[in-house]
Amino acid sequence: MTVAVWEAMRRRPLRFALSAWPLRSWAFLLSGTVLGFVVLLLFAALLLVGVGLSVVGIGLVILMASAVFGVPVAALERRRLRLVEPDHLLDPHGSLPGTGALPWLRTRLRERATWRELAYTLILGVVFTATGIGFIALLGLSVILAATPVIVWAIAPDTVMLVPGQPISDPVAALPGSATGLFGLLVSAYAGGLLAGAQVRIAQFLLSARDEDLSSRVIELTRSRARLVDAFEAERRRIERDLHDGAQQQLVALTMTLGLAELELRGQDSTAAPLIARARTEARQALGQLRSLVRGIHPQVLTDHGLPAAVAELALRNPIPVTVDIDLPDRLPSAVEATAYFTVTEALTNASKHSGADEVAVVGGLTDDKLVLLITDNGHGGADPAAGAGLQGLADRVAILKGRLIVTSPVGGPTQLRVEVPCSA
Amino acid sequence: MLRVVLAEDAVLLRAGLVELLSRTGHEVTAAVGDAEELARAVDADRPDVVITDVRMPPGFRDEGLKAALELRGRYPGLPVLVLSQYVATAYATQLLSGGSSAEGGLGYLLKDRVGEVADFLDALDRVACGQTVIDPEVVRVLLQQRTADEPLQRLTPREREVLALMAEGLNNQAVAQRLTITEASVVKHSSNIFMKLELDPAEGNRRVLAVLAHLRRETPPS
């Protein structure tokens, strides 16, 4: 990791003093000093209260809270760092599995980053504040010295003494002091740059994400992806149920009302009768469409009767004949069932659309606690998993459940899809 | 006039069905919203026929269907008409294989059918009389399949039409009317169907058996 302010100083040492860098460094150091001081006070107060109340019990909670005190400070510091550092630091913390204060505290206390941030907070409060005060003294003195002629002019006829016993009588006599002040400012520019750079370095070392944080994040990513799949599945079911309980029922009620109206009009010579009949037909068509839509979202028969029955229903609807032989001792986890079902759906669609096959066989069973499905067609082969989004999407979906999809499709056929999904996961 | 116990959790639909049934001269002794209430109502009212939805609270799975099968276990021969939103044959199979041992009508109708008031009432009557009625749409899906070594393959198109109408619960005369052929040729067709499907005439109601044979095949038991 580079430090931008140091780089700027190294590349163009002379122009550095006239660039915006010194001002940015000073702003960074000044704000850091104030913040460090406040943080130090707060932290000391927390500790004191915590220790003082530890006999009561609540004090222990406060002490725990002071252990994670570095977390918000570090978050603030990562933002404040942007004053002098264009490269943003990655937040080393993982996202949280649950909400609420207690799970948050538990997770954070387990993370090493939390303790690094606490160390940084202490350094900020003690070292940065101390050096910052020293630097402010230098900067302040330089500014005052540089401004002596103005001060002398402003407070006349009172006199100003830079060196004890030698009063300065007029602004012109104060010019040497002014020169010293300007030199001090020049020194402050470089010293500020160096000091700010050093603080950036320390922040980079303690506040950024390390490999160890990232590797735990990969595991978390995998988990969150699996959670996402579950969430999608739950959402599908919710939509299916909403449609079923809402729109479908309403449409059925509508057809029924129309049917009753027809019944009332029977025998009467009314022009409304054919209109009502038409409305009923249209409502029925809408129902039919809605039904196939709902089935595509999540078939109820999969929920109620499991994978073999659901695939058998699929086979009934498929334009080319499908033989199904799926033998399972028990129901599978619902995520596995859903993935397997949609894989078969997609495979059958592909076979019917692209393969030129006139027969498809779906064979499935449980081997070593792993669902193995073979979908074979007698078509002309040549299916390329890399070419179509469909097969790739299937492979992705299966991979989320730590399963795999193997496609063998030599030119001339046959095409076979082998799906393996572990059921214990 | 039939005394009906109705189980349907969608309020709108339940009210509509009650209205439809009472307007057409039937008596709804109880209209309930879940499977438990259904069982209680049947125990109390001993209706002529039960109409139930498949999916009902609390699980919103096949509680209604299961409750109907249980009731048929308790009251053999109790006619049950199941209304369903699903064309899935697994449900029809579940119903028929659970209830075919006992006497008494069974029906599996899609809810859409309720709109065809006359057809719906006709189906209800036939179920109450002990016949089996399966929704034409379900039958159509079953007959659509074209598996290679399928006994069904051996049926001629006309024979399939006859089978489909039989599945709907029509008798020979009604089938003849629908297809505008003579009753004698319906008899001829149906004996061909029974022969091709290798159904034993001694096994009771062959019409139901013919339909069952197809519903059961391919669809694994639940």
UniProtKB/TrEMBL annotation, chain A:
Keyword line: ATP-binding, Kinase, Membrane, Nucleotide-binding, Phosphoprotein, Transferase, Transmembrane, Transmembrane helix, Two-component regulatory system
Reactions it catalyzes: ATP + protein L-histidine = ADP + protein N-phospho-L-histidine
Highest taxon listed in the record's lineage: Bacteria
Single GO MF descriptor: protein dimerization activity
EC number, as in UniProt: 2.7.13.3
Stretches assigned to the Putative sensor domain: 28-207
Domain Signal transduction histidine kinase subgroup 3 dimerisation and phosphoacceptor: 235-302
Gene3D superfamilies linked to this entry: 1.20.5.1930, Histidine kinase-like ATPase, C-terminal domain
Transmembrane segments: 21-49, 55-76, 122-155, 175-198
InterPro entries xref list: HATPase_C_sf (IPR036890), Put_sensor_dom (IPR025828), Sensor_HK_TwoCompSys (IPR050482), Sig_transdc_His_kin_sub3_dim/P (IPR011712)
One GO CC annotation: membrane
Protein name, as recorded: histidine kinase
Organism: Streptomyces marianii
From TrEMBL, chain B:
Modified residues (4-aspartylphosphate): 53
Annotated HTH luxR-type domain residues: 148-217
Pfam families: GerE (PF00196), Response_reg (PF00072)
This protein's UniProt keywords: DNA-binding, Phosphoprotein, Transcription, Transcription regulation
Record PANTHER family: TRANSCRIPTIONAL REGULATORY PROTEIN NARL-RELATED (PTHR43214:SF24), TWO-COMPONENT RESPONSE REGULATOR (PTHR43214)
Lineage, broadest ranks: Bacteria, Bacillati, Actinomycetota, Actinomycetes, Kitasatosporales
Residues covered by the Response regulatory domain: 3-126
Keyword Oxidoreductase: no
InterPro entries recorded: CheY-like_superfamily, NreC/VraR/RcsB-like_REC, Sig_transdc_resp-reg_receiver, Tscrpt_reg_LuxR_C, WalR-like
Name recorded for this polypeptide: Response regulator transcription factor
GO BP annotation list: phosphorelay signal transduction system; regulation of DNA-templated transcription
Transmembrane segments: none
SUPFAM superfamilies to which the protein is assigned, alphabetical: CheY-like (SSF52172)
Source species of the chain: Streptomyces marianii
GO molecular function: DNA binding
